[in-house]
From TrEMBL:
One GO biological process term: L-arginine biosynthetic process via ornithine
Originating species: Thiobaca trueperi
Taxonomic superkingdom: Bacteria
Protein name: Argininosuccinate lyase
Main location: cytoplasm
């Protein structure tokens, strides 16, 4: 049998003239919403199962519908399905093919539902699986960061504020900061998934249906926590798509920040790390170039995702209840957000295991900019000097170092004592890079011992999931 009859509009009874050819193409969504076909069929099987349980369909009709839908799914999987623009969307394409295959039983599938609640269900089913896949990629990236942090727990580099050298830290500590950012992203997505996991199906067009349906049973079949409470809200709600895209935008902002640091660190001016050749490209004209294209592209994709968030907010901001055709425009930005987010996470998870630290370059940079100045101030405080006075004393010592072109650790004891007699020979122990990082030995601190403890806690958090 033929998959579709392009001239047969399922809603055509009301109309006396055919749809304009351009309008038909302009309003169709099948070119992009066909990717929902598995979820459309999954929802239809659950709906038919519920209808039969309620006596609205016979068991024979249910069995014919389920078998027919599985056949349609197999044809689509095999690339043997003829998608029709005149049939507008994934729903009508599948239903028309089903009816062509099994006859009148196929026409009964739409009993008690509308495309309005159908599409709202399909997108939630699809996005639920995508969130699970995205969270799995975040986990993979987090594990790569923990491995890198463990490998470089003792590696010292300068920590920055205002992109100026501030205090020495360990590279492992820096990687754990990225880990924590991703942990919040993973939690946000889990929270989004929980809130979106309610069933719109059964809301029909906007007011519910006169048939004795069991929405709790359909929710159970499809793995939803419960049916949506209000039929108007169920078909018109796109909060879940906006919330997901907002969480995706925050995640991409984090990846963009990671990218910025990798780009800076891999430059000749910093020279802190080497990125694997597998994640870089060259120049068509300058043979010496090794460009960090992966982090640059991820940084660029963040703007794309931010744009999708603003687009979805704008799409919804003036819509009256309930469903409007505007909502057809929610899918392409949502699909693109998912595709680019998953791709960015995958390439990052692959790349971070191949980052190589240039230890001496990091160490040399940490010795610049008087990064242990705060340690000297803390030393003076422990000698009974108020912090504000200690701050002034160290500032004067730094000024001398600037004039002399020497770090604080390179000044002599006599030079340091001219600013405060409280300074003794033991001061040089706190002015070393190792002494500075080791002194921050508390939870959340940069001391190597604390970094290793945090890595173990991080691994346990991931194991507990």
């Amino acid at each position: 049998m033929s998959d579709t009859n392009p001239s047969a509009k399922p809603w055509a009874g009301r109309f006396n003239a055919p749809t304009d050819a351009f309008v038909e193409a302009f309003t169709a969504s099948v070119d992009f919403d066909r990717r929902l076909y598995r979820y459309d069929i999954q929802g239809s099987i659950a709906h038919a199962t519920m209808l039969a349980r309620q006596g609205i369909l016979t068991d024979a009709e249910r069995d014919a519908i389920v078998a027919g839908l599985e056949t349609v799914r197999a044809r689509i999987d095999a690339g043997e399905f003829n998608w029709s623009i005149p049939l507008e969307d994934v729903h009508m394409n599948i239903e028309t093919a089903l009816t062509a295959d099994i006859g009148d039983a196929g026409k009964k599938l739409h009993t008690g539902r509308s495309r309005n609640d159908q599409v709202a269900t399909d997108v939630r089913l699809w996005l639920r699986d995508e969130i699970d896949a995205i969270r799995a990629e975040i986990l993979r990236l987090q594990r790569a960061l923990l491995d890198l942090a463990e490998r470089e727990a003792d590696t010292i580099l300068p920590g920055f504020t205002h992109l100026q050298v501030a205090q020495p830290i360990t590279f492992g500590h820096h990687m754990l900061a990225w880990f924590e950012m991703l942990e919040r992203d993973r939690d946000r997505l889990a929270d989004c998934r929980r809130r979106m996991n309610v069933l719109p199906l059964g809301a029909a067009a906007l007011a519910g249906t006169t048939y004795p349906i069991d929405r709790h049973y359909t929710a159970e079949l499809l793995g939803f926590d419960r049916p949506a409470e209000n039929s108007l809200d169920a078909v018109s709600d796109r909060d879940f798509a906006i919330e997901f895209t907002a969480a995706a935008a925050i995640l991409m902002m984090h990846l963009s920040r990671f990218s910025e640091e990798l780009i800076l660190w891999s430059s000749a001016q910093f020279g802190f790390i080497d990125l694997s050749d597998s994640f870089c490209t060259g120049s068509s004209i300058m043979p010496q170039k090794k460009n960090p294209d992966v982090p640059e592209l991820v940084r660029g994709k963040s703007g794309r995702i931010f744009g999708h968030l603003m687009g979805l907010l704008t799409l919804m901001k003036s819509q009256p209840l309930a469903y409007n055709k505007d909502n057809q425009e929610d899918k392409e930005p949502l699909f693109d957000t998912v595709d680019n987010l998953k791709g960015s996470l995958k390439v990052y998870a692959d790349m971070m295991g191949h980052v190589t630290c240039r230890h001496e370059r990091m160490r040399a940079s940490a010795r610049q900019g008087f990064s242990t100045a705060t340690d000297l101030a803390d030393y003076l405080v422990r000698r009974g000097i108020p912090f504000r006075d200690a701050h002034e004393i160290v500032g004067k010592a730094v000024a001398l170092g600037v004039r002399e072109g020497r770090d604080l650790s390179e000044l002599t004891l006599d030079e340091l004592r001219q600013f405060s007699p409280a300074i003794d020979a033991d001061v040089f122990a706190v002015l070393t890079l190792e002494g500075s990082v080791a002194a921050r030995d508390h939870i959340g601190g940069t001391a190597p011992a604390q970094v290793r403890a945090a890595i173990q806690r991080g691994r346990q958090r991931l194991c507990d999931i």
